[in-house]
Amino acid sequence: MGSSISTFCHCYSDDDNKSESSDCSQERRALLAHRERQAVASLVRLFENDTRIDFYEGEPLKSLTILAHSDVHHLQLSAATAFSEISEYDVRPISRDALEPMLYLLQSTYADVQHCASAALGNLAGVEENKRLIVDMGGVKYLVRQMLSPSTEAQINSVGCITNLAADEDNKLAIAKSGALIPLTRLTRSADLRVQRNATGALLNMTHRADLRAMLIEAGSVAVLVELLDAKDDDTQYYAVTALSNIAVDDSGRDILWSTQPALIPVLLQALHKPKIKLQSQIVLTLRNLASDARFQASVVAHGGLDALLPLLTSSYTLLIMSAAACLRNLSIHPDNEAPIVRAGFLPELLDLALQMDEPELQCHVISTLRNFGANNGSDKQALIEAGLLDRIRIAVEDKRVHPKVRCELAAALSVFALNDQLWRPIVELGFCELLVRLMRCRHMETEYNACLAIGTLIGKNLPEVYEELMRLWQKPGIGMRAQLLQILTLSEYTGTGVRSVAVWILMAFVSSSRSDLQKRIACDSQLVAAVEDISTTRTMPAERPEQASWAFLPGMLGKKGKDVGCQERAPSSTLTLSSSSSRSSSSNSTAIDVGGPDNEFQRTQSLALQVLSLARGASSAC
């Protein structure tokens, strides 16, 4: 701090005032106004008497503000240098009065003054309250002006400050509208690595909103970010990859990347060979987001992406394993990718990871991948069966440590397997119906929905072996299917959910079958009939609809989507802060078929209930 004040301390000490012959004193007295001389004297006095000075308020701030507004270069520089040095060790929320002289200095005609002022702002912009205050007081336009300077130091400080400001969600749009995106994009090509790194980081922080991602595309940032995938600086490369990952979240972003960057996938796969865990993980997550699109799903496999992903599943780093599993989940959405994935040797690794009970998110990705395989009805499933797919599913379902979300994915997978021509019979023969009945009472509505859906799908096969197995479980102590259905039909917590709809459909399948013993199970059960009557006479749709799951009819059975729509991940909005120096399933609600909203479902459930009652009356003579 002494260096920042040394000039005016030297020129305006009492000894210098007595030396009229001094060249320094003669020149300075001719230039300085009375208030400026008082400000200098005040600061000198403060330094002599108190080493713990608060420069953000009171007399020190007043004195620095006077110097900041001086027309004299060295006084402006002294004030700017003081603020720069102070902000390196005293970083905290400041007032508008403290910020005003720094913003004024940022507008100085002297480059060195601007550099120091922007450095001070960059330091203070690490504090959340200051981020918003700088933007509210118009600081961005002055920083953008500095970005256009030919001075490397000016670029470093101004871009670094913009990067910090852009970490605040409320500031992003103001920064974009200030005209910052084009100069930031240009500066990512700077020969100075510090400028390049800061500019790329600023673009990254601007990719956390869809509207800003669109503005970045318009500013031509996409092509530059792809170029930076080969950057020499590791941080710059990481920021570029992460920014592209965020852009790939949107359909429009993926369209631009597909149509304008044909080399994107090969470049990403090449960068994946760098032995940097953080970078590798982010590259794989970028591939994951891109693979929400069928074009990229095919492209990743066509360019040898499976060979790059397989070793990551056996990595000693959980982050890499998780990223690779999430990417594979999206790649498996494409029906043409199942055979290459199996041939590449992924199946044993996936089946082992399906039992990683201490990593539920990883389990969900893996089980969804297996589920996507099951949704592909046109491929041979013998390899899956021989590898122990259903055995692993059973072990995971029965493990008491299994996370509720994982159990839900398991139930969803079984509901898809029940649709598959090659997998439904092993499900019945291996006793999975009993597991599904147990899942009908697990107190997690979406899991219960998927379990009911799987049973409904099996009933839709209209085959004796299915009916025999379900009749065996109808009144079984502890897990009776009848008891589970009655609970779903009568408890208010199921009102308005797809679980109840499927339960009514199951009753209709029984009572409409050609077997009199199945018809009697429903027609002669007064409790079940009464529960269905209550549903049929309800006149208003329930207001509360927790964990809504939609559904629809397919010929002869209740159907569901099998594949994911693609899981994505976006970097958090505060990713970067700098100092100045589908039936393929991806999410919990992707297991359902939409039939047009809650009114349709409510009305259709009532219609089903009325059909059940009509059929039950016709069969009641046998009771």
What does this 3D model show about the protein?
The protein has 623 residues and is mainly α. The protein contains 38 helices and 2 strands. A hairpin with a 2-residue loop joins strand 1 (552-554) and strand 2 (557-559). The radius of gyration is 34 Å and the shape is elongated. Residues 1-21, 543-561, 571-583 and 585-598 have low confidence and may be disordered.
Outline the secondary-structure elements.
Blueprint: H1 2-11, H2 14-18, H3 23-31, H4 34-49, H5 58-68, H6 73-89, H7 96-106, H8 111-124, H9 128-136, H10 139-147, H11 152-165, H12 172-177, H13 181-187, H14 193-205, H15 210-218, H16 221-227, H17 234-247, H18 251-260, H19 264-271, H20 277-290, H21 294-302, H22 305-309, H23 318-331, H24 338-343, H25 346-353, H26 360-375, H27 382-386, H28 389-398, H29 404-417, H30 424-429, H31 432-439, H32 445-459, H33 464-474, H34 481-490, H35 498-511, H36 516-523, H37 526-537, E1 552-554, E2 557-559, H38 598-619
Antiparallel strand pairs: 1-2
Features:
623 residues; mainly alpha; two-stranded antiparallel ribbon; 2 strands; disordered N terminus
Largest sheet: 2 strands, antiparallel
Regions with little confidence, pLDDT below 50 for 5+ residues: 1-21, 543-561, 571-583, 585-598
Distance separating the two termini: 97 Å
Helix content: 55-70%
Spatial sequence of strands, sheet with the most strands:
1-2
What is the averaged pLDDT score?
84
Overall body shape: elongated
Number of helices: 38
Question: What's the total number of strands?
Answer: 2
Any idea what the radius of gyration is?
Answer: 34 Å
Q: Given the helix and strand composition, which structural class is it?
A: mainly alpha
Strand content: under 5%
Quaternary structure state of the chains depicted? single chain
